[in-house]
Design brief:
Blueprint (H helix, E strand, L loop, with lengths): L1 E5 L4 E6 L2 E2 L8 E6 L3 E6 L15 E7 L3 E7 L7 H14 L7 E12 L2 E10 L2 E12 L2 E9 L9 E2 L4 E3 L2 E9 L1
Antiparallel strand pairs: 1-5, 2-4, 2-14, 3-13, 4-7, 5-6, 6-8, 8-9, 9-10, 10-11, 11-14, 12-13
Length: 182
């Protein structure tokens, strides 16, 4: 088996949020980046690149410290996203995810199927101490693996953030995206 070590030096891991509710114009759609994370991609046989691998027998494991999440962008909203907004958002994020008790978000694959051109990774995502199944869709091309998954916060026992007495709400579905150089 060939193993490839993963981390921020190999690519980006992003979380994208959206807004709902009557007050959605006041808030921002956020792009949050994991600035520190680690993982391993294990490929079957003697493969040391995705191009020569098959999905069967591949696996992936990822670890993201909650305190390594950083707000990179806030789109929309009445006013631009300020530094104070970013600080408040990160404080709320750490509180909602229970970072003191559960300092890491983890993903461990349970199966991979498809071809390098297009594949699905099934696995277990642990957030805020709760583990649930998650499916990632990805593709490999030109030495990169690009993919995404949709995470429904309430499935992990997370109540989406709300403000203004519920008029502004974070959408339950958030997108997790990755673009990795192998």
């Amino acid at each position: 088996m060939g193993t490839i070590e993963l981390g921020p030096e190999r690519g980006r891991l992003l979380i994208r949020t959206g807004r709902t509710g009557l007050g959605r114009r006041a808030g921002h759609d956020l792009t949050i980046e994991a600035t520190r994370w680690s993982g391993t991609l294990t490929l079957p046989g003697d493969a040391t690149s995705v191009a020569g691998a098959t999905a069967d027998g591949s696996s992936v494991e990822m670890r993201v410290p909650v305190d390594a999440l950083d707000v990179r962008e806030g789109a929309g909203g009445v006013l631009p996203l300020s530094d104070q907004d970013r600080t408040e958002i990160l404080g709320n994020l750490r509180k909602v995810l229970g970072a003191a008790e559960h300092p890491e978000i983890t993903f461990e694959s349970t199966g991979v199927r498809g071809t390098p051109a297009e594949f699905t990774v099934e696995g277990r995502l642990t957030v805020a101490g709760r583990t649930e199944p998650l499916e990632l869709r990805a593709r490999a091309e030109d030495g990169r693996v690009v993919g995404s998954a949709t995470v429904k916060q309430t499935r992990w026992g997370i109540k989406p953030y709300s403000a203004f007495f519920g008029a502004l709400k974070l959408a339950d579905d958030i997108a997790v995206e990755f673009d990795l150089r192998l």
